Amino acid sequence: MKILKLSLVIIVTAMLFSGCSKQKVTDPYAQIEDVTKPKLTTYELNVISNKIYMNETSGNPEHLMFWSKNELFASLGIGHFIWYPKGQPQRFDQTFPDMIQYYIDSKVEIPNWLKVSMKTGAPWGNRDAFERARNDKEFIELKYLLMNTKALQTQFFFDRLHASIPQIVKHVAPQYRDHIVNNYNALAKTKGGWYPLIDYINFKGKGIKPTERYNNQGWGLLQVLQNMRAVQAGPMALQEFSRSADAILKRRVQNSPPENKESQWLRGWKVRTDGYAISIL
Fold it and tell me: Are residues 137 and 110 in the same domain?
């Protein structure tokens, strides 16, 4: 009887270990190699933050806080985080409240009004109110906070990228997952490869939100990674990401409603995606 019980224990244990092993093999995130300790050096943070700052503001501090005539939200910080006023439908991912929480978690001193607004929405109801507030104390406080925390904002972008990859992989059918993960890892292992990944997800989103589509085709990081040819780490990974990003944005414009006149942005977008082809580090 003892021998029989022992045999059963061995069989069950073997089955459990076999199941665990199988789970690891089929886990779509198992090949994502930065999942344990993603890090950027101080040098990388500073170089990437300055590059993103130039992309979004052309180096003008006045453009750190911006509200386009064509949009229903404020764009704030070096990456132009989206912040909607209360009650405004949120077509795009709203990222600035998460940045406020990141300040709090990082022990950065921020004004109390910002903590309150994090939960209630941007304090400007529309673009006109935003522009009228430019000389207000709160507006100036926020501008200086954003100017003095460029590296921390970039670390937030990086952490967001890291957290988003499992969501992106899970969002696609199993047959596409290895391709996306392999291309992501190729960029992650390439010198200067973090910059295009960080900048693009901040620039055009993850690519998984249903409202961020024209003709059911998105334009986020998911679509760029999926549209890439299979690459290995090295300069070709940068060049292929650049090519794919340009193609995805052209497709977005082709699919966009004519009244949006999105072709006006293509030249600037191409300058940005061309910059992904060569390492900035």
Answer: yes
Is 129 within the bounds of a domain? yes
Q: Give per-residue pLDDT as tens, 188-216.
A: 999 999 999 999 998 999 999 998 999 99
Other CB atoms within 10 A of residue 123 CB: 20
The number of domains in the chain is: 2
Looking at every residue in the chain, the average pLDDT score rounds to 88
User: From CA 275, how far away is CA 242, in angstroms rounded?
Assistant: 7
Look up the domain containing 244 and give its range. Answer: 172-281
271 pLDDT band, cuts 50/70/90, is very high
Q: Would you call 40 helix, strand, or coil by DSSP?
A: coil
Residue 178: the pLDDT is 95
Using CA atoms, how far apart are residues 63 and 56, in angstroms rounded to an integer? 8
Residue 31 has pLDDT above 60, yes or no: no
pLDDT at 91: 87
Q: Which residues pair with 66 in a beta bridge?
A: 75
Which alpha helices (DSSP H) does the chain contain, by range?
Answer: 2-26, 42-57, 96-105, 112-120, 127-132, 137-147, 150-171, 174-188, 194-204, 221-227, 235-255, 266-274
Report yes or no on whether pTM surpasses 0.85: no
DSSP 1: -
Rounded (5°) CA angle 187-190-196: 50
Tell me how crowded residue 27 is: count the other CB atoms within 10 A of its CB.
13
Residue 205: half-sphere exposure toward Cβ, Cα within 13 Å = 17
Say whether both 176 and 275 belong to one domain: yes
Q: Could you tell me how many residues make up the chain?
A: 281
Last residue of a domain, one of 125, 153, 181: 153
Given a cut of 70, is residue 25 above it in pLDDT?
no
Instruction: Report whether 58 contacts 72 (CB < 8 A).
Output: no
